[in-house]
Amino acid sequence: MADVINGYWQLTKPGIMVMLLYTALSGMILAQRGIPSLRIIVVTLLGLAMSTGGSAALNMWYDRDIDAVMKRTVKRPIPAGIITPNQALIFGLSLIVLSFVMMAVFLNLLAATLSFAGAVYYVVIYTFWLKRSTPQNIVIGGGAGAMPPLVGWAGVTGHLSLTAVLLFLIIFLWTPPHFWSLALYKNEDYQRAGIPMMPVVKGSRNTKWQSFIYGIVLLIGSLALYFVTPLNLVYPIAAVVLGVGFLYYLTRTLREEEGSFRWARRSFFFSLAYLMLLFIAIDFSIL
Ligand code: HEM
Ligand SMILES: CC(C)=CCC/C(C)=C/CC/C(C)=C/COP(=O)(O)OP(=O)(O)O
């Protein structure tokens, strides 16, 4: 029984979900320029947890064939035989529908629709279509993971703004260096599963260069936020320090010899710290 409960929990990709919720909360604090009401926080984050968790479950339902052949994913609940594919399908669909209804009734239709659109984007556009067909899969698919701040913003204000779009853009530009750093050292897995990730199709050198270029554009995009919404100096300082730090890791990755993945691994972990700290800096720049 405990195995099954844990299996359902794992279907939601909890680690990634927490980060997605964190970026949404950060967007909410910026939209409110302070702490929003507890009711809005709870409904928005619970709704998003259900739509992101539900779409992760549908991703695992659809990808069960490739998850079973990749070392990193073979222990997931479906390939491990803990949850059946149909259970995952019903669980994922129910969470997404419930999330939409709850947000539409208790929050507003824009937030509910954006959250639903994020789930469709991740499941249908990324998982069903792009992931198995093009090396640009995660560049375009990154848009799904960038949607939570838009949902948070809409949850608080009932509309969108240029500032919200810039938060989206920051996560969108961050996704390629985040994911490709990992894909470099998980290349064998993706090759075996036949997924056309960038390092599989274009090789590691080309992928590292592309990551570096996204890193530069990300630094510029993160600074743009400072010019569209009032923030104190903490933000641009953090954006420069973190952005230059990320570029340092990506440069070391670029310079390490073929077959060594020490800096690729470090770049992946730095990407997680980068996003967390940048969004903390946003909130510290207004509070
Ligand atoms: C298309 C977009 C993305 C792809 C393909 C992707 C891919 C991945 C993969 C494959 C891992 C697993 C690492 C492992 O199992 O060792 C991972 C970890 C992680 N990702 Fe991403 N990611 C994407 C976007 C995002 C976004 C938008 C966020 C948050 C805003 C995020 C946050 C995280 C976190 C926190 C982890 C570490 C926790 C964990 O592994 O459970 N990712 N990512
Ligand atoms: C607003 C809303 C509902 C947005 C949905 C956002 C969402 C769940 C984004 C997840 C992005 C992500 C972690 C992709 C993992 O890629 P993968 O599935 O290829 O990774 P895997 O190989 O680990 O399965």
TrEMBL record:
Which keywords label this protein? Cell membrane, Heme biosynthesis, Membrane, Transferase, Transmembrane, Transmembrane helix
**Protein name per UniProt:** Protoheme IX farnesyltransferase
CDD domains according to UniProt = PT_UbiA_Cox10
Query: Which pathway does the record list?
Result: Porphyrin-containing compound metabolism; heme O biosynthesis; heme O from protoheme: step 1/1
Q: What family, per the record?
A: Belongs to the UbiA prenyltransferase family. Protoheme IX farnesyltransferase subfamily.
Q: What class of enzyme is it?
A: transferase
Does this entry carry the keyword Transferase?
Answer: yes
The record's section on InterPro entries has: Protohaem_IX_farnesylTrfase, UbiA_prenyltransferase, UbiA_prenylTrfase_CS, UbiA_sf
Q: Which GO terms describe its biological process?
A: heme O biosynthetic process
- What is this protein's function? Converts heme B (protoheme IX) to heme O by substitution of the vinyl group on carbon 2 of heme B porphyrin ring with a hydroxyethyl farnesyl side group.
Specify the protein's topology with respect to the membrane: Multi-pass membrane protein
Q: Which domain of life is it from?
A: Bacteria
Q: Which Pfam families match?
A: UbiA (PF01040)
Which residue ranges run through the membrane?
Answer: 12-31, 38-62, 82-102, 109-130, 150-174, 211-228, 234-251, 263-282
Main subcellular location of this protein, as a coarse class: membrane
| A GO MF term | protoheme IX farnesyltransferase activity
Q: What else is known?
A: Carbon 2 of the heme B porphyrin ring is defined according to the Fischer nomenclature.
GO CC annotation terms, alphabetical: plasma membrane
Protein location: Cell membrane
Catalytic reaction(s) noted: heme b + (2E,6E)-farnesyl diphosphate + H2O = Fe(II)-heme o + diphosphate
Give the EC number: 2.5.1.141
Subunit annotation: Interacts with CtaA.
